């Protein structure tokens, strides 16, 4: 019975597009805003679109945790840090998904450079490890991701990000390859209190997905967020607080069939 439950969970884990999206995303702010991330300029750009790091001028470190569908076997964890220099911004990320029976690890080193006042470019080299129980060998691969950010004004930003542009072969069986993921979108700050995001997300093995979300700053400390995703349909929501140098965010994704996936993230700016 335990083996049967394990394989049911594993097949669900591999088949859902939610799994694919978490390959790149971290941060409860983005998760609460319909998983829109590519045009955001915040600490979690180090994980979601490295080009955004060039406009983020703080040295920070943070963690993210998601209890996907309330199953510890599908839990997702991330640790990220970034450091700004005169020659650009450096970033490092470690993402871990799963448990001892099946897990994936993604470790990356990134760099972002502001080309001018409006454009920035980011790149990250990634090490990917996939582990399936003790009797199978680990799969170890190396790939990269690139991002662009265009900020024509203070309240508008456009972003584009590609993970694994050259589809790396994962296994010889059935020519299995690591998926390529491309997302692009924009963020519009309507006024000092309201931000709206819209994004198109394409996984090489799934249909095009549209994501949208908004953020409302209740005051200087607290913010409330909502979002919607398509294919499959999900809605998201959350709150956040900025207390001096500490940011704490809570969010959740509601899948109409599989239920809730609560998330929490926090980061500290030095």
Write the topology of this structure.
Blueprint: H1 2-15, H2 17-21, H3 28-32, H4 45-48, E1 60-66, E2 76-85, E3 88-98, E4 102-114, E5 119-132, E6 139-153, E7 156-163, E8 169-171, E9 176-177, E10 181-189, E11 194-203, E12 209-217, E13 222-229, E14 234-243, E15 246-255, E16 259-269
Antiparallel strand pairs: 1-2, 1-16, 2-3, 3-4, 4-5, 5-6, 6-7, 7-10, 8-9, 10-11, 11-12, 12-13, 13-14, 14-15, 15-16
Task: Spell out the key features of this protein.
single chain; 270 residues; mainly beta; 14-stranded antiparallel beta barrel; two-stranded antiparallel sheet; disordered N terminus
Task: Describe, in plain words, how this protein is organized in 3D.
Helix content is 10%, strand content 56%. By secondary structure, it is mostly beta strands. The strands form two sheets. The protein has a 14-stranded antiparallel β-barrel. Strand 10 (181-189) and strand 11 form a beta hairpin. The radius of gyration is 18 Å and the shape is globular. The N and C termini lie far apart (49 Å). Mean pLDDT is 87; it is low at 1-22.
């Amino acid at each position: 019975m335990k083996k049967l439950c394990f394989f049911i969970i594993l097949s669900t884990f591999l088949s859902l597009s939610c799994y694919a999206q978490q390959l790149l995303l971290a941060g409860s702010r983005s998760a609460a805003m319909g998983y829109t991330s590519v045009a955001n300029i915040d600490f979690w750009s180090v994980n979601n679109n490295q080009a955004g790091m060039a406009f983020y001028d703080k040295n920070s470190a943070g963690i993210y945790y998601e209890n996907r569908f309330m199953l510890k076997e599908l839990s997702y964890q991330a640790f990220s840090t970034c450091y700004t220099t005169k020659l650009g911004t450096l970033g490092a990320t470690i993402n871990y998904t799963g448990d001892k029976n099946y897990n994936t690890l993604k470790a990356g080193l990134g760099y972002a450079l502001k080309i001018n006042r409006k454009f920035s470019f980011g790149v990250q080299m990634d090490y990917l490890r996939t582990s399936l129980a003790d009797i199978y060998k680990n799969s170890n691969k190396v790939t990269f991701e690139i991002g662009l950010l265009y900020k024509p004004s203070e309240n508008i930003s456009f972003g584009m990000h590609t993970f694994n542009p050259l589809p790396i072969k994962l296994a010889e069986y059935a020519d299995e390859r690591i998926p390529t993921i491309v997302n692009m979108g924009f963020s519009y700050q309507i006024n000092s209190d309201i931000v709206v995001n819209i994004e198109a997300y394409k996984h090489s093995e799934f249909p095009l997905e549209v994501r949208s979300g908004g953020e409302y700053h209740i005051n200087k400390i607290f913010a409330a967020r909502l979002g919607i995703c398509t294919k499959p349909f999900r809605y998201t929501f959350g709150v956040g607080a900025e207390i001096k140098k500490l940011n704490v965010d809570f969010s959740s994704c509601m899948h109409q069939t599989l239920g809730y996936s609560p998330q929490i993230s926090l980061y500290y700016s030095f």
